[in-house]
Design a protein that fits this description.
Layout lengths: L4 H9 L25 H4 L3 H15 L3 E3 L6 H5 L4 E2 L7 E2 L22 H15 L4 E7 L1 H9 L2 H8 L1 H24 L4 E5 L8 H7 L1 H13 L3 E5 L8 H5 L5 E3 L6 H10 L3 E6 L1 H6 L3 H15 L4 E5 L9 H12 L1 H7 L24 E6 L6 H11 L1 H5 L4 E6 L3 H10 L6 E4 L2 E5 L5 H14 L1
Parallel strand pairs: 1-4, 4-5, 5-6, 6-7, 7-8, 8-9, 10-11
Antiparallel strand pairs: 2-3, 10-12, 12-13
Helix pairs in contact: 3-5, 6-8, 8-10, 14-15, 15-16
Length: about 450
């Protein structure tokens, strides 16, 4: 008897071997592209979100699917103003705690913000496809939510006001658990904490501020008999072990991490790993064969136990639907796909790139290489850290974000030899790799280059 996608996911979460690798397309704003619906409209309309999700479900043949991928829902409820975009989730525009540390939040109610839209769509998805498809409820993790509320000051607070940081993270954890209760009641099968900023801190900082909150989250969900997940973006290699110590059912990673090496760590704790089809270089900029080839390679390397195939994170809006359909085909019939791809080789980028003459710059050039600051929280806060230096140095420095959604920047990555995103360069030298610098540390580093110039 053939298992449904939901049954496959549940067996994997129970650490059982299955007959084929399950797959979850992280369909966030990308589903809007199916009907030319912009992200800002999609994420603020029950009917548009539901109808586009149903269309994506028909096309992509998922074993599991998130109802919404928006890490700003909780922040908006707690007082953050959002900046909306046509091809990306909203970003946080203002931080209620940026100028003071007076925490006066109440726990969310079902009627707050966009929760009525989300909860209604969850209930409708449960009724429409929930019998055979595992439904994911994604919630902003406590560190990322704390950074939304406090802004860049949070990273300095970790050194100067540890008590405040812990109190804020504890409150954000309580917010998470309240939202989790709402999502469970609406029919979600798996609740995941999505906390991209985790990749930007050290293991010691994680243990100090986050071990207890995440352990509390996963223990709470276990008692509710709900499967759980821990999503992280960026190069969180250094934090995989401490993440495992919090005992999640699964960990989801992106292309910044070597998933074969990572699985050895997660397997030692009997934790499922999910990932990590590259979002930009393969899904967005590649063709259908590139996506199928990458999917097959991951399946062959990682097997049919403790592994779920998925994109590295929320898919960009412009990922061609045929690429996602191709992955689904590869998952459903890997042997036939392998035969089809036998003689296929990915074409190398043939792009002329003009690199800056770093040795002859008149003033320091700060480049932040990102997936996209509009869609990646870690990328956004690193870019913001760089942009804030203009307030100090003005026209004495140049600051630019290099998004790899641009093919020329992908080629630049290869020339420079960068492997991880986000990364901040000064005059072509990688200074901060998957770590957001404090304001003081970055200021001091820039001053070194001003003296040289």
């Amino acid at each position: 008897m053939q298992l449904s996608g939901k049954e496959l996911i549940f067996k994997i979460m129970n650490n059982e071997e299955v007959n084929r690798t399950p797959w979850i397309p992280y369909t966030g704003v990308q589903v809007g592209s199916l009907t030319n619906t912009t992200a800002d409209k999609l994420l603020q309309s029950e009917e548009l979100l539901f109808s586009n999700l149903i269309e994506a479900h028909k096309l992509y043949g998922p074993d599991g699917i998130p109802v919404i991928f928006d890490l700003q829902i909780e922040a908006e409820i707690l007082g953050c103003e959002l900046m909306w975009a046509e091809k990306a989730p909203p970003s946080v525009k203002t931080h209620p705690l940026s100028e003071n540390k007076e925490i006066e939040f109440r726990l969310p109610e079902k009627s707050d913000g966009r929760l009525p839209i989300v909860l209604n769509v969850m209930e409708r998805m449960k009724k429409e496809v929930g019998e055979k498809t595992a439904l994911y409820g994604l919630i902003c993790g406590p560190l990322t939510l704390a950074s939304h509320l406090r802004g860049m000051n949070l990273f300095m607070d970790m050194y100067e006001d540890e008590e405040f940081v812990q109190n804020l993270i504890d409150i954000c954890t309580d917010v998470f658990l309240r939202i989790a209760d709402f999502y469970i009641e609406a029919g979600m099968d798996i609740i995941a904490a999505v906390d991209p900023i985790v990749s930007q801190i050290s293991p010691d900082t994680f243990e100090q501020f986050l071990h207890k909150p995440f352990s509390k989250i996963f223990e709470y969900l276990r008692k509710k008999k709900i499967y759980n997940g821990f999503f992280v973006c960026g190069d969180a290699t250094k934090n995989l072990e401490v993440m495992c110590h919090t005992k999640p059912d699964s960990i989801s990673i992106d292309e910044n991490i070597d998933i074969v090496k990572a699985k050895k760590i997660t397997d030692s704790y009997n934790i499922v790993i999910s990932g990590n089809i590259p979002l930009t270089t393969v899904m967005l900029l590649g063709n259908q064969q590139d996506n199928q080839k990458n999917a097959i390679e991951l399946i062959e390397k990682l097997g049919k136990k403790n592994f779920i195939l998925a994109p590295g994170c929320d898919m960009p809006y412009d990922v061609p639907s045929e690429n996602i359909i191709g992955i689904s085909q590869a998952v459903q019939n890997p042997h036939a796909t392998n035969v089809f791809l036998k003689d296929y080789h990915k074409e190398k980028l043939n792009i002329e790139v003009t690199m800056p003459d770093y040795s002859s710059l008149e003033k320091p050039l700060i480049e932040v290489f990102t997936i996209d600051s509009a869609t990646c929280a870690a990328c956004g806060y690193m870019t913001l850290a760089a942009m804030q230096m203009k307030e100090i140095f003005g026209d004495r420095i140049d600051v630019i974000e290099q998004k790899i959604t641009n093919q020329e920047n992908v080629a630049k990555l290869e020339i420079i030899g960068l492997k991880n995103l986000p990364t901040m360069l000064i005059n072509g030298e990688a200074k901060f790799i998957s770590i957001i610098p404090t304001r003081v540390k970055l200021k001091n580093e820039i001053e070194k280059y001003l003296k040289i110039n």
